[in-house]
Amino acid sequence: MKKTRITFNAPVTLGFVLLCFFATLFGVLSSGKITEGFFMTYHSSLGNFMTYVRFFTHVLGHEGWEHFIGNASYLLLLGPMLEEKYGSKTLLEVIGITALATGLINYVFFWDIALCGASGVVFAFIVLSSFTEFKQGEIPLTFILIMFFFVGEQVYEAFAVNDNISNMAHIVGGIVGAVVGYTLNRKKF
Questions:
Q1: Of the candidates 108, 118, 111, which has an alpha carbon nearest to the alpha carbon of residue 67?
Q2: Which member of 20, 64, 101, 121 has the lowest number of beta carbons within 10 Å of its beta carbon?
Q3: Which carries the bigger pLDDT value, residue 155 or residue 172?
Q4: How far apart are CA 6 and CA 9, in angstroms?
Q5: What is the model's pLDDT at position 41?
Q6: What is this structure's pTM?
Q7: What are the contacts of 17-23 at 24+ separation with CB within 8 A?
């Protein structure tokens, strides 16, 4: 009889969630000071080296456990499938591109808003997952529905709801997922 063992099946996904966990833990233990210093992007001096670091690291920090668990659940649900299909390197690039894009857009256009959390990456994963059965010359209905429901909701909430959630990060993450998904799958044909 073959033994059952636990495998480290999606190293980028698991590593990213683990980094988010520790960033959240340190943030909670420091009453948000570590999050603000290392894992949150906001309009700070371009002469400050940490401004550039936080363009990437803000996706690791979360406001608290509920915020982290919500994002981690989606990451763990979608990440392994995407990592298997596209590879670890590509998934790491999606995370990096999404982090940089949301960090820069927040810095340039939303001077008075601090941004933290992996929600943009989650939305990139959601939209990217709709391309898993992409064929040349076709637009997957799942992609259209995801864009309508998930991204459409974010556009609506950006204007109609004041809930301290960065709809911009969700929309930008969705756009990154769409562009990467289309580009990667188009090259296969």
A1: 118
A2: 64
A3: 172
A4: 9
A5: 92
A6: 0.86
A7: 17/72, 17/75, 17/76, 17/79, 19/60, 20/59, 20/60, 20/61, 20/62, 20/68, 20/71, 20/72, 20/75, 20/118, 21/68, 21/72, 23/57, 23/60, 23/61, 23/62
